[in-house]
Amino acid sequence: MAVKQIENLLALLEFFAERQEPATLADVVRHFDWPRSSAHNILTTLADAGYLYEPRARGGYYPSSRWQQLSEAFTEAEPVPEALRRIIVRLGEETGETTWISAPNGQFAVFLAVVESSAAVRYAAQLGNRVPIHVTASGQTLLSQMPERDREVILRKTEYGCWGPNAAKSVDEVREQMAEAGARGWFVSASNYSPDLGGVAVPIVLGNRIYSVTVAGPLYRVTDKFEENALRIHRAIAQELGPDHSRKTLTGITIPDWQGAALD
After folding, report:
1. Is residue 67 part of a domain?
2. Which residues contact 37 (CB under 8 A, 6 or more apart)?
3. What does the angle CA 135 – CA 139 – CA 141 come to, to the nearest 5 degrees?
4. Which of 28, 116, 187, 255 is the most buried (most CB within 10 A)?
5. pTM of the full predicted structure?
6. Are 124 and 116 in contact (CB under 8 A)?
7. How many other C-beta atoms are found inside a 10 Å radius of the C-beta of residue 202?
8. Confidence at residue 77, expressed as pLDDT on a 0 to 100 scale
């Protein structure tokens, strides 16, 4: 049995997500044809709890960052499928580099599972680390599988020119990098976020969740192996999830012929 108040709350959140700008009480009443008193009670209750705020006095309500904070907490605590853990363990053994699984978290990619290299000089990654979603291989990989509208909202809100020396400096540059990566079949970062560090990443879609698998290390050790490591990722995904999994679930990305490569 549906609970009307919860249905109304969900409808209101979807309304704000589609509208992308503040809404007044009159806007909400007009859109939903709710009684004015009911709409007022919903809006003021959410505002009093900190989930809505008024960007300008009498300029209407808009969802606050508390929703994002809740979403981030859910994402970081979400169990990682065991198949993905097996993939990064295998890749860590094959490459000797740090490997991880990440997922989108607002304007960041958050590390959900990590296998750190045992090398003295390595990419130091920890569970819960966050990297900018628009400039890193892990992040752009995640962006590539998002609906275009969601991706564009993130790219418009982000900051440019304040990361690593090779980071994208504009929305157009991010789009260009992602188009090249999609045609190539894998995403790359080389001093985009951390100087002298780089890696490659490939997306995985399971159900309605987007993940990225990344292999990274110091540039002097991994630059010449970018393509090889990317093909290893594609092979590990195929061996764990099925040979056609990526072709059936990914959009806008070429699946390279890893079977024809000398990887062993």
Report:
1. no
2. none
3. 115
4. 187
5. 0.74
6. yes
7. 30
8. 59
- 73 has a pLDDT exceeding 70: no
Do 128 and 148 meet the contact criterion of CB atoms below 8 Å apart? no
For the segment 151-161, the average pLDDT, to the nearest whole number, is 83
Task: Give the pLDDT confidence score for residue 86 in this predicted structure.
Answer: 96
Residue 41: the pLDDT is 87
Per the listing, tokens 């976020």 go with: 193
pLDDT greater than 70 at residue 175 = yes
85 lies in a domain? yes
Q: What is the rounded CA–CA span in Å between residue 16 and residue 64?
A: 11
**CB neighbours of 62 closer than 8 A, spacing ≥ 6?**
16, 21, 22, 23, 52, 53, 54, 55
Count of domains for the chain: 2
| Backbone region of residue 128 per phi and psi (left: phi > 0; alpha: psi in -120 to 50; beta: other values) | left
Q: Which long-range contacts (CB under 8 A, 24 or more apart) does 148-154 make?
A: 153/20, 154/106, 154/107
